[in-house]
């Protein structure tokens, strides 16, 4: 891995005004031209996810930032809220919460790989993580279905007339919840076992 100067020092001097031998150094991931501080060799290039930044040059510091279990926990909680919304007849909200539950779950494997998944497209996030974890076709199909619920469930201008609540049905919310369950199950299974 190469090294490049990073950020300004505590006095606010830019790296170029500091003598070369005194400049702070950052590691460069071989698959990226981005400055990556505190990252050891990671299996994902930071094209869709970005490396976790610790603010420290110590490569061990990044291991303390694996919050994948928290993201999975929030994913399950959000799926529960989708179920309650569906039971109450709020099918547009249930579909959106299902998409969110799946998004939270997908971001957990990124964190376990020392990356932070960016974006809201479930399909794109899963295709990127496929460089490290094989994603089954049914999970990709579920992601494509749930991606449709990210915007249209919330904004009236997604339709010619009426509001999202007028277009979502019990069948839609049941399907969205099942798709989210499939994605969450895949993400839980793809995480390395701790212990």
Task: Describe the overall structure.
The protein has 195 residues and is mainly alpha-helical. It folds into two domains: 3-64, no CATH class; 68-190, Four Helix Bundle (Hemerythrin (Met), subunit A). It has five helices and five strands. Strands 1-2-3 form a three-stranded antiparallel beta sheet, with no helix packed on it. A two-stranded antiparallel sheet has the order 4-5. Strand 2 (25-28) and strand 3 form a beta hairpin. The longest helix is centred in the middle third of the chain and has 22 residues, at 91-112. It is elongated. It starts with a strand and ends in a 5-residue tail after the last helix. The model is unreliable at 1-9, 24-48, 53-58 and 60-64 (pLDDT under 50).
């Amino acid at each position: 891995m190469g090294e490049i100067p990073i950020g300004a020092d505590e006095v606010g001097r830019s790296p170029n005004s500091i003598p070369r031998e005194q400049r702070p150094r950052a590691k460069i991931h071989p698959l990226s031209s981005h400055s990556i501080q505190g990252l050891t060799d990671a299996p994902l290039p930071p094209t869709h996810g970005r490396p976790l930044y610790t603010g420290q040059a110590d490569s061990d510091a990044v291991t303390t930032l694996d919050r994948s279990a928290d993201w999975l926990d929030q994913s399950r909680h959000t799926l529960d809220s989708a179920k309650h919304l569906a039971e109450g007849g709020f099918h547009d909200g249930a579909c959106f919460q299902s998409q969110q539950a799946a998004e939270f779950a997908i971001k957990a494997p990124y964190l376990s790989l020392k990356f932070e998944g960016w974006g809201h497209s479930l399909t794109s996030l899963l295709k990127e993580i496929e460089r490290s974890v094989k994603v089954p076709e049914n999970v990709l199909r579920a992601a494509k279905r749930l991606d449709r619920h990210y915007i249209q469930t919330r904004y009236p201008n997604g339709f010619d007339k009426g509001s999202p609540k007028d277009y979502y049905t019990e069948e839609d919310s049941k399907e969205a919840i099942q798709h989210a369950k499939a994605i969450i199950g895949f993400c839980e299974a793809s995480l390395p076992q701790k212990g």
